[in-house]
Write a structure and sequence with these properties.
Layout: H1 23-35, E1 45-51, E2 55-57, E3 65-71, H2 77-94, E4 98-102, E5 105-107, E6 117-125, H3 155-158, E7 169-173, E8 179-184, H4 188-212, E9 218-220, E10 231-238
Antiparallel strand pairs: 1-3, 2-5, 3-6, 4-6, 7-8, 8-10, 9-10
Helix pairs in contact: 2-4
Bound molecules: flavin mononucleotide.
Length: 239
């Protein structure tokens, strides 16, 4: 299956075989990663592939591999990580592997890279369960809750994964034919934990739109754009 087809059938995998992923598949993943377009090509990213014993994670389950993602901390770098790594996440699942974003974890070795910030782990391995599902089995908000006027073209975003399934995106149609994408503001205490993950969620949503409409998709961040009360402006798109 194509990476973009996984939008409609993927799920987070939290049960893995102990077997390591073959070198061939790891090489395919690395090759695919270098071909992925970014939201902002001026932000440099790095990634390590670590074993389960090289990360500390809060979950009770373990995967044989974890991608540790690092980014230069430039404006909207978390959105950029979400955009790039969700494309990789869909690819990984399209070659028969399972994956799951892991917000609550980090590499045991915290030395990292000069000029880069550790952003997130992504679990990876052979799934010990069926990693696919039907659209009806996605637990998601209805389309009318994520946009101002019903727009079926947003279905790929509706299905996108997000931290704690918070689905923090909202779309407003603009007179120009474009749409503004907003991120829902969380209450202060929740924002302290979830805010940075919700920034990645926005990039994840944009990745689904880009893959669904690769020929027409355009994204721009217009500085000083207004946003409705309770929302944060995250960009203007055309699909
Ligand atoms: C940024 C981010 C962080 C996440 N962190 C975790 C995590 O720490 N542990 C976990 O089990 N799932 C984590 N998830 C997976 C979400 O819980 C999951 O995507 C969401 O519940 C929707 O389910 P689905 O991916 O199966 O569609 C994370 C997802 C995202 C996008």
């Amino acid at each position: 299956m194509d990476a973009k087809d996984m939008i409609y059938s993927r799920r987070s995998v939290r049960k893995y075989l102990r077997t390591s992923v073959s070198d061939d598949k790891i090489n395919d993943i690395v090759r695919y990663l270098t071909s992925i377009p970014a939201l902002d090509e001026d932000i440099s990213l790095r990634c390590d592939i670590l074993g389960a014993d090289e990360v500390s994670v809060r979950q009770t389950w373990r995967a044989p591999h974890y991608l540790a993602v690092y980014s230069e901390p430039k404006p909207r770098y978390r959105q950029n990580v979400g955009f790039v790594y969700q494309q990789l996440d869909l690819y990984v699942q399209s070659i028969g592997l399972g994956s799951c974003w892991v917000g609550l974890g980090k590499p045991k070795d915290s030395s990292g890279y000069e000029g880069y910030e550790f952003v997130i782990l992504i679990a990876l391995g052979y799934p010990d369960d069926i990693p696919l599902r039907e659209i009806g089995d996605f637990k998601r908000k209805p389309l009318e809750d994520i946009c101002d006027t019903l727009d079926e073209r947003l279905e790929p975003v509706r299905l996108a994964p997000s931290a704690t399934n918070s689905q923090p995106w909202y779309f407003e149609h603009l007179p120009s034919g474009e749409m503004a994408i907003y991120r829902k503001k969380q209450p202060k205490l929740i924002d302290n934990v979830l805010g940075k993950f919700n920034e990645m969620d926005i990039g994840i949503a944009l990745a689904h739109l880009y893959l669904a409409y690769p020929l027409t998709y355009e994204y721009e961040y217009v500085v000083d754009s207004p946003s409705p009360k309770g929302y944060i402006y995250e960009g203007t798109i055309r699909i």
